[in-house]
Amino acid sequence: QVQLVESGGGLVQAGGSLQLSCAASGRTFSTYALAWFRQAQGKEREIVAAISRHGGSTYYTDSVKGRFTISRDNAKNTLTLQMNVLKSEDTAVYYCAAATGMSTWWVERAENEYDYWGQGTQVTVSS
């Protein structure tokens, strides 16, 4: 089992940057496929980016391609989302999530495949 704790959210002006971090407990961090999801008020939760167990494969939803970067440090049990050129439509609660049972190279996009979730961190982008 793993516990996930997000940090780094806050209020930023449009065009600015934020870096979200997700710290994980446990000694098996490298066995989890990871992802960032977000949920805006009144909308369904959606995947933002995902990364494979070894970090060599990534996925980004179209709206964040070229602006966001997902990365992981398996030695430090940390998942990161660097968000640049933020837009008002990026305003949401951001969650990190971990999935078990995935191949080393697999990038999981399906929300229902994720077994563990953090509590979320609010990102607000003012226009």
Descriptive keywords:
mainly beta, 127 residues, globular, 11 strands, seven-stranded mixed β-sheet, four-stranded antiparallel β-sheet
Topology:
Blueprint: E1 4-7, E2 10-13, E3 18-24, E4 33-39, E5 46-51, E6 58-60, E7 68-73, E8 78-83, E9 92-99, E10 116-117, E11 121-126
Parallel strand pairs: 2-11
Antiparallel strand pairs: 1-3, 3-8, 4-5, 4-9, 5-6, 7-8, 9-10, 9-11
Largest sheet: 7 strands, mixed
Taken as a percent bin, the fraction of beta residues is over 45%
Q: If you average the pLDDT, what whole number results?
A: 96
Work out the radius of gyration.
Answer: 14 Å
Taken in chain order, the helices and strands follow as: EEEEEEEEEEE
The rough form would be described as: globular
Number of strands: 11
Helix content: under 10%
Structural class, from helix and strand content? mainly beta
Tally of individual helices: 0
Q: What is the first-to-last residue Cα distance?
A: 40 Å
Unreliable spans = none
What does this structure look like?
By secondary structure, the chain is mostly beta strands. The chain is built from no helices and 11 strands. Strands 2, 4, 5, 6, 9, 10 and 11 form a 7-stranded mixed beta sheet that branches. A 4-stranded antiparallel beta sheet has the order 1-3-8-7, with no helix packed on it. It has strands at 4-7, 10-13, 18-24, 33-39, 46-51, 58-60, 68-73, 78-83, 92-99, 116-117, 121-126.
Briefly summarize what is shown.
Helix content is 0%, strand content 46%. It has 127 residues and is mainly beta.
